[in-house]
Each structure stands twice: as C-alpha cells, then as structure tokens.
Amino acid sequence: LQLTGKQRQFIDLLQQQxxxxxxxxxCAQAGFDFxxxxxxxxxxxxxxxxxxxxxxxxxxxxxARGEDLAGVLPGSLLADRLLAGQCDRAQxxxxxxxxxxxxxxxxxxxxxxxLIDGNGEGTVAVLKSSVLGAYQQRQGVFEAIxxxxxxxxxxxxxxxxxxxxxxxxxxxxxxxxxxxLPALQTLDLGDVVTTLTSELILSGxxxxxxxxxxxxxxxxxxxxxxxxxILTQCIQRIRDIFLNMGFDEMSGYMVESxxxxxxxxxxxxxxxAREVQDTFYLANPQTLPxxxxxxxxxxxxxxxxxxxxxxxxxxxxxxxxLRAHTTTSTARRLHQLQGKDGKYFSIDxxxxxxxxxxxHLAEFHQIEGVVVGELLSVRTLMGYLTYFYERLGFKxxxxxxxxxxxxxxxxxxxxxxxxxxxxxxxGNSGLFRQxxxxxxxxxxxxxxxxxxxxxxxxxLLYDVEKLSDLxxxxxxx
Length: 477
Ligand code: PHE
Known about the structure:
binds phenylalanine; Arc Repressor Mutant, subunit A; Ribosomal Protein S8, Chain: A, domain 1; single chain; Phe-tRNA-synth_IIc_asu; 3 domains; BirA Bifunctional Protein, domain 2; EC 6.1.1.20; 16 strands; magnesium; Phenylalanyl-tRNA_Synthase; 19 helices; seven-stranded mixed beta sheet; ligase; alpha+beta; 477 residues
C-alpha cells in the first residue's frame, strides 16, 4: 500500500475498531476530512481490508428563518404554561412580556386557545390540549436539530410541521457503515521510508520498503519565489512598447560573418573597428560561408571597391566573429525585404572586445530598430526615438551629429537624467546610406534605424551604479 500520512493515520484508527456505524461521525470525531476519506475508500485501496455499505440519510438543518427564532418556537412558551394549568391572562402577560401576543397568536392560529373576558378576570382557555402537547414535541425536535442530534421516527410529525413553517430544511447525506476485516487488524504497515538512500537501492530493499508518497495535500511553507531580473523586466517593457508601436520582432545570430557585421554595412575592410582590439574573432569556426546570393556579394564588393580604393577580399568578409552590433539582423532583414516596407526591432546580445569596468562589459544588449518606407526623414527618426524614450519616462532628449560608415546623417541620442542632472548617451541612430541600401536590394527606399543600449537604460531606470549589479552571477537587487 502506498499511503499518505493521513491515510496511514486513518488505517491506524480503523485497526482499533471492529465496526463503524457512521463513517461521517467517525471522521468528525477523529478530525478527518470526510470527502478525503470517502475518496480513499472508493479508490479501492482498502478492498479486502474493509467492507462497507453505503446508506444515504436525510438530515435536517435550520433555515435562516429557523435561526432567527434563537431557539424558541413561537407558541411553545405559552403552551408550556397552559399545560401546567396556568391560565390567568394578566399573569401570563406579565411573565411573557411582549412574547405573550406572539405566543398567543401562534396557538390561536391553530385554534388551540381562546381568550375569555367574562367577569373581568381575563382567562386563556385551552380548546385543544393536543396541539399544546404537539408544541412541546416540536420545540424538542427543533432544539435537537439545532444541536445536530440524530432523530428517530417519533420526530416525523414535528419535522413535517417545522418544515412547513419554513424553520428547517432537509438534505440527503451519503454515509457509510464499515466492517473492519481481520486482514486489516493484522496488517502491519511497517515503517515508512521517507528518504531513499543509495543503500536501499543497492541492496534492493527499496522493493519491499513502504516509500512515503508525495502528499499533495500537505501544507508547505510559503516561499518567496523567483521573479524576472531587472534586465528581463526591462526587455519585456521595451518589447511591449515596440509591439504597441506596430513593430515586429526580428532576430539574428550571435556568431556572424564579418560580411553581415561590417561589409554589408559599408564598413571598409581596414576600418579600425574591425581590429581584434575591438572585435572578437572566432578560432572555431574561423570562417563562415558568404550569403547564398552571389549577386549580393558582388554588389557589396563593387561598392567597397568604388569607394574605398579597390581593395576588398572575400576572405576578410568570411571571417567568423561574435556580432558587434545587432545591425547585422537589420542588414539581413533589409536583404529579405527587397524594398518592401516594414518596421522591425530586436533586443539582442552583442559582443565587443572592451576593457571591462563599472559601466562597460564585453557583452551587452542592443535595442535595434529599423523602419523602411517612403518619405522618412531625420524628423521621422527623432519622432520615433522621442516617442519610445517618453514611454520609458525620459522626457527630454538631445540629438548630436556623429559618424557611422553606414548612415548619413547619423545622430547620437542623449537622455536627460534628473537625479544626476546630466544628459547621458543612450543610443546611436541614423538614415542608412544608399551605398548600404542599394546592394541589399532596398535602394529605392528610405530607412531610419537605431541601436540603443539596453543596460544603460536599465541603469538609469533602476538607479543602478554598477553593471555587475545588473548582470552576471552576483545580482544583488
Ligand atoms: N549599430 C550602431 C551601434 O552599434 C547603432 C546604429 C544602428 C546606428 C542603426 C545607426 C543605425 O552603435
């Protein structure tokens, strides 16, 4: 038998009995939940150990109206006194007070009494003493129900009357009587094994052992469970903002070819950003295949050669790196779109070979965004960024011209940070150049795009001073 603690306790209890007249009252007395034990019985786990017989029984309970009577039926106080031979009206009124007319009214309704005012001495005359007797019985039954006592057949007529008056209501309750069979009396439950040790397993003893099952009804201590880290919360918030602005989420690859990270972005092959001091080059794989679109590679090559003095090699473009920005995802997406309009964002991890300090890590997240369409301008770009940062609570932005190989104009974004009374750099953005768009097949389109620092935003929003409080194995927030 695989038993929970409660089930064991119940069996212990049964072993001390031969018969149980009412499982319900046994449960009530011993503090077991009847429904739980009922389920245990019906599961068949005790078949062969216990015989049981179901019998439903009608039980009674006071209705709200019955509860209102506070234990005394109208009529019974007066009935008691009349049966005891007391019939002087003035005296009865003095004793019963305001209850007199209530009691008199009740008995009068059954035409059991009358008032006689003959020679000035008021008298309550008994017309039907059988009704008065019935009142005494009804009162007794009423009290028994209130106390939850079991009633016998003699209560039938009182029950009927009490129900008609609306003082009590019946319900049907299933109950069981049990006969405990000798098999249970002699059943040795043995010790419960609460810890499965390697010894039990190796010796094979676990096969015989009574392993304690999980008790899914057991009360467990309240634990403060996990919640998303600040960075994850930030990502969720930013994702919601862009989704609400009608953007679709895009993704890319952490391991990329230099082609998508640099060449497709019109970054010359001798650009300082491509040096190992800035970019992580992989030893394995050392190279990645160029895009499966030779015409694209050809167009990129031509643009580089025409603008950057004739030197461009596929070998350099094939080098495998950890992506240094998520504009790789944007470039891939533009190539997919082939001039179709769209709005895309990503929140993804990037890698740069930087010296790690309080505010710099070699890996961080960028919030990338790109809009492809007609008539997009610097104003459009500033509009999107202003709207986005406002949603995060940064109301005051400044834009400063900067340089990127692939955008013109290019704007750095600064957000005002009231606690430190400074403008803090939060992103970089621009309008993609024709030299980049045309080879990707989007030459007819205007695009605005940005790459924003997620950790910078999180630090400002949550007032964190060290990046190590935000990321890594030692988050102390
Ligand atoms: N890729 C740039 C960076 O990493 C950000 C950027 C994205 C700028 C798109 C302009 C357009 O800083």
